[in-house]
């Protein structure tokens, strides 16, 4: 709530000052001459600055979205390769190999979920990891 009070207070004080000055100028009968070319230059400059700022924000958002998609795609590729992987080591039994592969797959899921929560700055919700973490 404190984030909104200071800007709101500033805007209200600014509006009161502008209104007071306008009333003072009107009451004193001072001729108000206003050259619209200054307003045009100011609004054009402000609009260009706003467009460029929004454009940069959109590019950053899109780049981060592409990177997140790349992380998920790589996790899926690693998962597919782990599932298809067969060990040639005869000293490791089939059940042990399957258990190890399953552990790595669970770690991949935990990595993707925790990375998502870290990037969004939200806590990890236990319901996102049901069936993965509770099996250990």
Automatic annotation (TrEMBL):
It is a multi-pass membrane protein. The keyword Ion transport applies. The keyword Repressor does not apply. Keywords: Cell membrane, Ion transport, Membrane, Transmembrane, Transmembrane helix, Transport. It is found in: Cell membrane. The chain crosses the membrane at residues 7-25, 37-55. GO terms for molecular function: chloride channel activity. GO terms for cellular component: plasma membrane. It holds the Pfam family Bestrophin_2. PANTHER family: UPF0187 PROTEIN YNEE, VOLTAGE-DEPENDENT ANION CHANNEL-FORMING PROTEIN YNEE. This is Uncharacterized protein.
